Amino acid sequence: MTNHRLPPECRLRRPADFDRTYKRRRSASDGRLVVYGCENGLAYCRIGLSVSSRLGGAVVRNRWKRLLREAFRLHRCEFPDGIDLVVVPRVGNQPELVWLEETLVDLAGKVAKRLAKDTGRS
Q1: pLDDT-derived band of residue 68, with 50, 70 and 90 as boundaries?
Q2: Domain ranges in the chain?
Q3: Which one in 26, 71, 74, 97 has a CA-CA gap of 20 to 30 Å to 5?
Q4: Is-contact 54 18, C-beta < 8 A?
């Protein structure tokens, strides 16, 4: 049986990783979601979630996190390799998996292009 879980190494957990990604100051947004990115020197993409209590109670925040992880897991092969992503949802939106799948891949691609532009890669 095939394991379809999101491996632990694909998630950001240490505060230092989040800080490094924020300090790199490369982001993309569509008004409802902000994605920050930073090079990680690995052969795969990692994701971190920053879901504020301003979005709502624990049920709402946990739903956001569950759906963001699921969107990342389903489309992991479409994300650019070698970058860390921190995803921050904006206040006032309801999470929908179909929308998150499209938006997350698109914003990650934009962040990767900005990172590549900074380092001189294409």
Answers
A1: very high
A2: 9-115
A3: 26
A4: no
